[in-house]
Amino acid sequence: MATRPGGVRIGSRRAHRFRAAPLPVAGVVALTVLALVAGGLVATGSASRGGAERVSTRPAKPPSRFALANHCWALAAAVSGKFVAVAGDGYRAKRRSKAKAAALYLKPTRLGAYLLYDQGRKLMTAEGRRGVVRAKRLGKPAQWAPRRSANRTFKIVSTANHRKLAVARRGGALTLVSAGKSSRRTRFTFQRGHGCQRYPEAKTGAMGTPFKGTRPDGTVMGFADAHVHITTELRAGGRVIHGRSFARFGITRALGGDARDHGPDGSLDITGNLLRNGTPVGTHDTHGWPTFAGWPVHDTITHQQTYYMWLKRMWKAGERLVVAQTVEDEPLCRLEPRRSHSCDETHTIKLEIKRLKKLQNYVDAQSGGPGRGWFRIVRNPRQARRVIERGKLAVLIGIESSNLLGCSEFMDEPQCTRADVDRGLREYRRLGVRTMFVSHWVDNAFAGAALEGGSRGSFIGIMQALQTGEYFETGPCPERGQGEELDPLGLGVLKYLARFFPNAEEILGIPIPDYPAGKQCNVKGLTDLGRYLIRRMMASHMLIEVDHMSERARLTVLNMAEKHDYPLVSSHTDTGGAWTPSDLRRLYALGGFATATPAESPELADKILRFRPYRTRGRVFGVGLGTDTGGFSELPGPRADAGQNPLKYPFRSYEGDVKFTRERSGQRTFDLNTDGVAHYGLFADLLADMQRRKRGKKALPVLFRSAEAYLDTWRRAYRHG
Ligand SMILES: [Zn+2]
Ligand SMILES: [Zn+2]
What we know:
single chain
């Protein structure tokens, strides 16, 4: 892999192909192609110094409308052959030489639509019925859709009013004409330009093409993260977690404007404050883009940490399978005083699924067209395997929610029927969901929830009371080593909290239990309706997530799974109920999947290796990550001895094919040694830190077999029935 001074990568395969094909493109044509390639590369180099993310397009024929993405272009008017140049506050087709043309960087907003960002950092913008001006405001008037037109040209349509870009009859200024008009004045060509400003974007800091293909034995390489909340900003009513994994108008929108949700000083982040510090009162620095002075940080729980470029860094580090867990909890949403949508879980889950599909399209748009991106939603294990073999990231859609399929319970009464279960499962399958939690934080009509400890557990107690009309009923645990100590909030604290969460008033009349000291478990297990759900999930090959359900419920589900030889998944093992050695033995014997939750690198290696006693003969042994990023949980901080023994930059990926520098977003550079895992992309750094240790060297091969192990588990679910 060669790297040009401008930071542009030229794939060796491409260079080879180019050299190997002199016969069909002989003489002048070949020279033209060469000049175009050289011109294009130089131009893109200056536009994307240090951040080249894409392979360039084949310039021999005019680019497709998708291939304009993230490149520098000069725009030529078909009517005069003249190039469009900046002219005051507008543009004019007046230049014979490309050197004087406006340098337009085309940033995709979605498939087939772009911002045209000029060398003065202004956007070509539609104004009124006729005007085309240079402006800075983001919005539909700045968005254009180039479409193929006659003679290998493009027409360029404003998405604000659907009028067409045209060259004025006199003077050559750019203007708008009605959509129906078509002449040489409305046709343009894109030619590789020079001197663009790159549109603001985070950089992966990962250079090189990641591996693809299989091992000699046919298994795939790479690791799985079975538990990530990419769409976390939509949970809890949509105003609790700030920042989005992508935005149509780019990173400034996706990761800016925290004050809108959390207030200028962060004091409106009452849920974050409560879960972090045990009190709703608190402040934080709200600066995201471009300084990122306030967030992301490893111990935030209410800011987006999986911006798509950060996720891309992990893909480059060898991540090949991700379960995007859509997530919502009605009782938390109802407690929130500020919301952007209803508290109906199914409604929110559907919004999140839609958002994941949009993300796939957005990544495709950045990568040059439909199907070209590295982020691929998959619906069955065979499809996932193909995606991974092509070196891309397979994305399963999962659900982690409190009232799956709307099946809550109130005062022990289920709020849904078997028919609701059938209908809901069918619909989720149709939408692409392939793995689901049976319960989450509170009891529902299917099962009891595993108790959680600490201030988070106390807060969950409020949700349980609000949703089900009663606090948890506890008793001894079915197995040794399980359970949590419960410390419910007293009436005085509840009244205080109700000042911030007014809907907490509803539970003030519910008697607060006096739990005995010591660890206890939820006495509620799997209900009849829960058994029905499990049977239906097996029949539809849906993966069954067994974290979060009460220890009693989990034992029942293990029994059922053994009877039907059906695999189970623990996607963030020991979160939402501890796993005993006996449980784990049974999970592995069924061909199930377990994970290591985030920890600093020495401990993470131990967490991966702890499953070794359970490996089963004749089956690939791989342990995945269950990072629960976006799950109201902190990510690992800097290692205590990072000062004396830091991870050194740059480093190479585990497979050695990608070189990593410190990740850079806006004006901020992230360093594992000082920032810890401030965002998802820094897990790549954490894995490199692990690789420097003896135990880490043992753990990484196990981790890098986890994509294969997950596929194996999933395949078993398909074999059933
Ligand atoms: Zn969870
Ligand atoms: Zn989660």
